[in-house]
Amino acid sequence: MVSKLDNLQALRGIAALMVCWHHTDVLVNIQNEKEIIASIKGATGVPLFFIISGFIMVFTTRNLSGNPLNNSVEFLTKRIVRIVPLLYFSILVFILMCHKDFIKLWHSEFPLIAFKTALFMPLFNDSVGPFYG
């Protein structure tokens, strides 16, 4: 049976790719005006991704029966199991790719940055919003 949400999931995947495109442009420090406009359009994937994700979470949990506390714990456990290992793997890959730069930071900011990133704590807040590393 094909899921009712396949098209919505596909749109969410496109939104995630838009965000990746935007971050790639930011990392390579684009200068071309057309690329800057494309990058800004890519940033619109963020709200689209979160709106669709929120809808999907509500849609998939709307008919749960039983104890709401148990349902919440089960939902959060599944989310943690799905997200945290990927985060830690990504942190490890990033460190291995950029280890020479991290050696310089090790004695100053790196332990705090790694700790905060691993615990989903923002590294700083400003007018744009928090930055999680």
Write a concise synopsis of the structure shown.
With 133 residues, the protein is mainly alpha-helical. The protein has helices at 6-27, 33-43, 45-61, 68-97, 99-106, 110-118.
Q: Runs with pLDDT <50, length 5+?
A: none
The biggest beta sheet, please? none
Number of strands: 0
Q: Averaging pLDDT over every residue, what do you get? A: 77
* Principal-axes shape call: flat
Share of helix, binned? over 70%
Strand content: under 5%
- Based on the structure, what is the oligomeric state of the protein chains? single chain
**SSE succession:** HHHHHH
Radius of gyration: 19 Å
How is this structure best described in words?
The chain is mainly alpha-helical and 133 residues long. It is built from 6 helices and no strands. It has helices spanning 6-27, 33-43, 45-61, 68-97, 99-106, 110-118. Helix 1 packs across helix 2 and helix 1 packs antiparallel against helix 3. The longest helix has 30 residues, at 68-97. It is flat, with a radius of gyration of 19 Å.
Essential attributes:
single chain; 133 residues; mainly alpha; 6 helices; 73% helix
Task: List the SSEs and their pairings.
Elements: H1 6-27, H2 33-43, H3 45-61, H4 68-97, H5 99-106, H6 110-118
Helix pairs in contact: 1-2, 1-3
